[in-house]
Amino acid sequence: MPELPEVEALAAYLRERAVGHTVQRFEVSSFSALKTYDPPATAVNGLKIISAGRQGKFLDIGLGPEDERPEIHLVIHLARAGWLHYRDAFKSPAPLKPGSGPIALRVRLDDGSGFDLTEAGTQKSLAAYLVRDPAEVPGVSRLGPDALAVSRDEFAERLRGRNGQVKGVLVDQEVLAGIGNAYSDEILHVAKMSPFALTGKLTDEQIDTLYAAMREVETDAVARSVGQRAAELKGEKRAGMRVHTRTGLPCPVCGDTVREVSFADKSLQYCATCQTGGKPLADRRLSKLIR
């Protein structure tokens, strides 16, 4: 799933490549992906892309008739398997047909370029919204403070205000916006903290360490991602991981084997030596978790 760094990089790429261009045609192939009907999809045609930004893990593209405040926002949540593919030119001028493979939406611009929003797999979760205010999107309206904008004191307050395992609290978008499964693994590894440590029991020193780790991991990932082409971002994300998706490989810090805990629809990775005092965490499906 694209998280804060990748969405920030996509926004930066669109600011460089698409802002200032006019939408020639907005095409919908997967009607289930477009979650709104007012304003209609046709309202985008002829509008200029004025801005491209981020709301947590949501991509926010502002459109309007002039270089002023956007009148309409295209807000996109790429979900687990969605992506944005920028095209310097499309092979065919023909409009998309409903159900055109993995393509959910297409935006054609006045210079012949544009972008597709695609989604792989059978579980379709990609969501796009055409709204006059991003706050109209339910997921945006519930977002907590951005992970790269929150102060240390607010970070501590929000973590301690949502009692639970630290891994789950970090990825709760109502607590902090932008952190997902991948970078939470990385943050906890840098902080040398168990993913199942309880937020209500964290000391001030642990909060300081965790906040510093969050800033380090997210800032470094943004620096590595911004400037990359959209097609290169997934590879850049994988290459920068210390423990996430590296099950069975050596920890880059201590050399111990990276381990995994699996859940129904996802998994987490960690280093027992760095994070849990050498004690492996049991798989939740098989036995009680070892904290």
TrEMBL record:
<dbReference type="GO" id="GO:0008270">
    <property type="term" value="F:zinc ion binding"/>
</dbReference>
<dbReference type="InterPro" id="IPR000214">
    <property type="entry name" value="Znf_DNA_glyclase/AP_lyase"/>
</dbReference>
<dbReference type="InterPro" id="IPR015886">
    <property type="entry name" value="H2TH_FPG"/>
</dbReference>
<keyword id="KW-0862">Zinc</keyword>
<protein>
    <submittedName>
        <fullName>Formamidopyrimidine-DNA glycosylase</fullName>
    </submittedName>
</protein>
<dbReference type="InterPro" id="IPR012319">
    <property type="entry name" value="FPG_cat"/>
</dbReference>
<dbReference type="GO" id="GO:0003906">
    <property type="term" value="F:DNA-(apurinic or apyrimidinic site) endonuclease activity"/>
</dbReference>
<dbReference type="Pfam" id="PF01149">
    <property type="entry name" value="Fapy_DNA_glyco"/>
</dbReference>
<keyword id="KW-0234">DNA repair</keyword>
<keyword id="KW-0863">Zinc-finger</keyword>
<keyword id="KW-0511">Multifunctional enzyme</keyword>
<dbReference type="Pfam" id="PF06831">
    <property type="entry name" value="H2TH"/>
</dbReference>
<feature type="domain" description="Formamidopyrimidine-DNA glycosylase catalytic">
    <location>
        <begin position="2"/>
        <end position="99"/>
    </location>
</feature>
<dbReference type="GO" id="GO:0016829">
    <property type="term" value="F:lyase activity"/>
</dbReference>
<keyword id="KW-0456">Lyase</keyword>
<dbReference type="GO" id="GO:0003684">
    <property type="term" value="F:damaged DNA binding"/>
</dbReference>
<keyword id="KW-0479">Metal-binding</keyword>
<dbReference type="GO" id="GO:0034039">
    <property type="term" value="F:8-oxo-7,8-dihydroguanine DNA N-glycosylase activity"/>
</dbReference>
<dbReference type="InterPro" id="IPR010979">
    <property type="entry name" value="Ribosomal_uS13-like_H2TH"/>
</dbReference>
<feature type="domain" description="FPG-type">
    <location>
        <begin position="242"/>
        <end position="276"/>
    </location>
</feature>
<dbReference type="InterPro" id="IPR035937">
    <property type="entry name" value="FPG_N"/>
</dbReference>
<keyword id="KW-0238">DNA-binding</keyword>
<keyword id="KW-0378">Hydrolase</keyword>
<keyword id="KW-0326">Glycosidase</keyword>
<dbReference type="Pfam" id="PF06827">
    <property type="entry name" value="zf-FPG_IleRS"/>
</dbReference>
<dbReference type="InterPro" id="IPR010663">
    <property type="entry name" value="Znf_FPG/IleRS"/>
</dbReference>
<dbReference type="GO" id="GO:0006284">
    <property type="term" value="P:base-excision repair"/>
</dbReference>
<keyword id="KW-0227">DNA damage</keyword>
<comment type="similarity">
    <text>Belongs to the FPG family.</text>
</comment>
